[in-house]
Specification:
- Helices cover 72% and strands 0% of the residues.
- The longest helix is centred in the last third of the chain and has 24 residues.
């Protein structure tokens, strides 16, 4: 709610000053807000939409943004929790792609992520999925 109020104050200021182009750019940036207004339901919706569409690029890009912006500032225990959440979301991505018959996306996933995941014990069995 506080961020929304600040956004409205900025919009009012831009209108008052007659900065129409800046206002349009500001509104466009708000629509494309990567932080999703820090609303959990919007963040979850974005992640689930990427998973359901088998859009690994969007999922990975958004997760990297969250990691740099938020997770990098967490204490050690919470960083481990964030890694577990990431792993669970990646597995959900694979399960959803498999259920939807998107085998090329699964193969592409492992080609891109093999270097990152090959040493993790909880991923050992998952590498058989494309075969």
């Amino acid at each position: 709610a506080a961020l929304g109020a600040v956004d409205e104050l900025i919009r009012e200021y831009l209108l008052y000053k007659g900065f129409v182009q800046t206002l349009r750019a500001f509104d466009q940036d708000r629509r494309e807000d990567k932080d999703k207004g820090l609303k959990v339901n919007r963040i979850v919706d974005y992640i689930l939409t990427a998973v359901n569409r088998s859009d690994f690029n969007a999922l990975q890009s958004f997760w990297n943004h969250l990691s740099k912006r938020f997770f990098s500032r967490l204490n050690h225990d919470l960083v481990n929790t964030a890694h577990k959440l990431e792993s669970t979301i990646l597995k959900l991505f694979l399960i959803t792609a498999h259920r939807n018959g998107r085998h090329e996306e699964i193969k592409s996933f492992f080609e891109r992520m093999a270097g990152v995941l090959h040493d993790r014990r909880d991923w050992k069995e998952w590498f058989a999925l494309p075969y």
